[in-house]
Amino acid sequence: MAGHSPNSGLSRRHLIAAAAGALSAAALPATSRAQAAGPRPLTVEAAAKLGALPGKAVLGAPGTAPRITELVDFNTPEWRRSARDMRELLAGDPRLAYAVVQAPRIDVRSLEAARVALAVLGRGVDLFEAFYFDLAERDGPIDGVVALGAAQRAGLDRYQIFNRSIQPQYTEDLSRAAALASALGVIDTPAYVIGDAVYAGYLDLARKRALLAAARP
C-alpha cells in the first residue's frame, strides 16, 4: 500500500489483488445515479433476499422488532453520520435490532474495507461493533489497511484478519449483498429498510426515530 512499508506483509497490492475478483460481482448497479424520492415498499423478493443474506451484522437485540437494516459503504459522505446515529439509537432503545449490510460501490478501497469488516464480523458481533464505531470516529478515506488498523485496535490480529478477508466466502457474501441492493432498487448508500419500506439516501436521527416508532406493533 502506498505509504506503507513493503515489509509489512499487508501491502495495498495484496489487498487489491484479493479484492479484484469480487469487484465486478459485488459492485452495486450503476445504471443511474438517481434514486426515487420517498419510501418504496419492500417487495416479497427483496424481503426473502434480506432474510437469507449471510454477512449481516445485527447489533442490539437480534430477533426483536422494530428492526432497521442499513446498506453501507464506508467511503460515502454520510456513512459516519449514520454510524453515530446508530450508536445513539442503540443506546436509547434496548429493544432495537440494527442490521448492517456491507454494500461497497465507491471504489476498490471500499471493497477492501468491506472484506475486512466481514472477516471481523466472523470473529463476533461485539468485536465488529468496536471495529465499526472506531472507523466512524476517524477521518479520511477507508481502505483495507485503515480497516485492518481498526481491527487491531478492537483486539484482533491484523494478519489473521487479512488472511480471513481474502477467503472466497466473502466474495459470495458481497455478491449476494449486491443482488439484495438491486432487488431493493438501491443505487447509492446509505439506504435503509425500516418496517416494510425501503428508504434511499441518508435519514437524519429524528426521522429514523419517527419511522422506528411507527414500525412498533
From TrEMBL:
- UniProt keyword list: Signal
A Pfam family this protein belongs to? DSBA
Keyword Phosphoprotein listed? The answer is: no
DSBA-like thioredoxin domain ranges (all copies): 105-202
InterPro entries, per database record: DSBA-like_thioredoxin_dom, TAT_signal, Thioredoxin-like_sf
Using the record, list the residue span of the signal peptide; answer none if the entry has no such feature: 1-36
Q: Does the keyword Lipid metabolism apply?
A: no
Query: What molecular function does GO assign, one term?
Result: oxidoreductase activity
Please give the name of this protein. Answer: DSBA-like thioredoxin domain-containing protein
Which species is this UniProt entry from?
Xanthobacter tagetidis
